[in-house]
Specification:
- The complex is a heterodimer of chains A (106) and B (141).
- Chain A contains three helices and five strands, in the order βββαβαβα.
- Chain A is an alpha/beta fold and 106 residues long.
- Chain A has one domain: Nucleotidyltransferase, domain 5, CATH 3.30.420.130.
- Chain A has a five-stranded mixed beta sheet with strand order 3-2-1-4-5, sandwiched between helices.
- Chain B folds into two domains: 30-95, Arc Repressor Mutant, subunit A (Orthogonal Bundle); 98-135.
- Helices cover 28% and strands 20% of the residues of chain B.
- In chain B, a hairpin with a 5-residue loop joins β6 (100-103) and β7.
- In chain B, α1 (36-47) crosses α3 and α2 (52-59) packs across α3.
- Chain B starts with 7 loop residues before the first strand and ends in a 10-residue tail after the last strand.
- The chains are: A alpha/beta (106), B alpha/beta (141).
- At the A-B interface, α2 and β5 of A face β7 of B.
- β5 (85-88) of chain A pairs antiparallel with β7 (109-111) of chain B.
């Protein structure tokens, strides 16, 4: 199962980005193998509807879970409609590697 | 066998469990069960002053069904007023607009969009989770 974590940078030592639509990078994690891949968020510089574009990217990637600091109303309803689980982490300054460790249970 | 009722969508459950008359000259006995969808219909039509044809879209039902629920809600409240009965809110046939849960152990919030997903916290796998709507919280975090 694939999961997306919003990240501030393009490696596992970057911190979690508290925004969904305008985050810097998406970290795509394969929960079975633990492999990660980073893709840039094309929506981050858009003046409007960044959440919608970001949500479309997520849907194209075929992930089932998105982890971020918060979601806007447009992204929320779109992800909800496609049955994608949203997770809002309380500690927004966490390092991606820690987030990965906690969700894969290692 | 009658046709199955389609579930009605509501934004949030009522923040109270019920209402009780006080100072009644006769002994008040009996209670009226107000369904969540009836509460929502009253709220949309009479509190938010929304036309029925808009309110029914919000609840995901037809206008006629909305009118029926609204009518039933008004009759129940009227009978409770006149006969000095207790109003009790019961769950009814509803689902919530936003299914946000909070884990009681790690306090992270998450959704469960698909009923087949196991009802555990995706972060710490705790089974102790609670629906945030049930606490009357409007905070989506």
């Amino acid at each position: 199962m694939k999961t997306i974590i919003t990240a501030n940078g393009s490696d596992v030592n970057a911190t979690l980005d508290p925004r969904f639509g305008r985050c810097e990078f998406f970290c795509i994690l394969d929960e079975e193998t633990g492999e990660t891949e980073f893709i840039e968020n094309k929506a981050k510089l858009q003046s409007s509807a960044a959440g919608t574009t970001a949500a479309e990217t997520v849907i194209e990637q075929g992930v089932k879970k998105v982890i971020s600091g918060d979601f806007g109303p447009k992204a929320k309803s779109l992800l909800d409609r496609f049955g994608i689980q949203m997770v809002i982490l309380k500690d927004e300054g966490q390092i991606i590697a820690n987030v990965i460790n906690s969700i894969t249970g290692k | 066998m009658p046709r199955r009722k389609s579930p009605r969508k509501i934004v949030a459950p009522p923040v109270f469990k019920g209402y009780k008359p006080f100072g009644s000259s006769k002994v008040c006995d009996g209670e009226v069960e107000l369904l969540y969808e009836e509460y929502e219909a009253i709220k949309l039509a009479d509190y938010d002053l929304m036309p029925h044809h808009e309110a029914c879209h919000l609840m995901g039902i037809s206008r006629a069904t909305f009118a029926r629920i609204y009518e039933s809600a008004r009759r129940k409240i009227a009978s409770a007023f006149v006969e000095a009965k207790t109003i009790k809110t019961v769950y009814g046939n509803v689902y919530f607009d936003e299914n946000w849960f909070r884990c009681n152990d790690c306090e992270n919030a998450f959704t469960i969009p698909n009923p087949r997903i196991k009802r555990i916290c995706p972060v710490c796998r705790s089974q102790s989770i609670q629906l945030m709507n049930s606490t009357g919280s409007t905070n989506n975090k």
